[in-house]
């Protein structure tokens, strides 16, 4: 089974790119982030015509997450991250697909840091860590994937010295990610490719993509039930070079059925 995550940076603006990628690569499950669309304007029919069932949690102009499944039923399990009933940002959705428990997330950026946005990022991270601990207690395969807005190590960024004060790379952010991993989660990309330079995001500015001046901020975390089922993982980097594309590239894993 091929499972992918992709920050589309506007599902309507990037719909031709999304549909082309779906047609060419045919992932079985796709987690999308940054839809930038309210629920009523999600392109439901186009996604269905591409062969995918879908659930989504949209929001006007910002945020938004969705899960797509090709020829499989999706059972929605939740669309908010527990811990703060006042938080109305659309950043999380959970589903059951073919005996997989999948959480799709769009963790806050947090810039400028320090400041209220960075505080919100760290608070959201604490809530995610709490939910992740609960998910580890269920006896079934679990995947937590999406745009984490976290650069885990210096290997995951071009010229790390330029990112020291950025919310994606600050010590507090990396410590929160390490704390999450320490619960018992496996970073799928680093399990298979511990030393390689792998990026998932390239800024639109300064010819970042052509220079491969990128970041790795889109991650797959797997629980122990999936460690031995992980076959392969990668980044569809070429999609970042398409016309009118997102600043992220799709990331995917293959697992044994």
Automatic annotation (TrEMBL):
Q: Where are the transmembrane segments?
A: none
Instruction: Name its co-factor(s).
Output: Mg(2+)
Instruction: Kindly indicate where the leader peptide sits in this chain.
Output: none
So which domain of life are we looking at?
A: Bacteria
Does Magnesium count among this protein's keywords?
yes
The terms under GO molecular function for this entry are: double-stranded DNA 3'-5' DNA exonuclease activity
EC numbers for this chain: 3.1.11.2
Q: Where is the Endonuclease/exonuclease/phosphatase domain?
A: 4-248
Q: Which UniProt keywords apply?
A: Hydrolase, Magnesium, Metal-binding
Database matches in InterPro entries: AP_endonuc_1 (IPR004808), AP_endonuclease_F1_BS (IPR020847), Endo/exonu/phosph_ase_sf (IPR036691), Endo/exonuclease/phosphatase (IPR005135), ExoIII-like (IPR037493)
Quote the Pfam families the UniProt record gives. Exo_endo_phos
- What sort of enzyme, by top EC class, is this? hydrolase
Record keyword Ribosomal protein present: no
Quote the NCBIfam families the UniProt record gives: exoDNase_III (TIGR00195), xth (TIGR00633)
Membership in a protein family: Belongs to the DNA repair enzymes AP/ExoA family.
This one is known as Exodeoxyribonuclease III
Taxonomic source organism: Salinimicrobium flavum
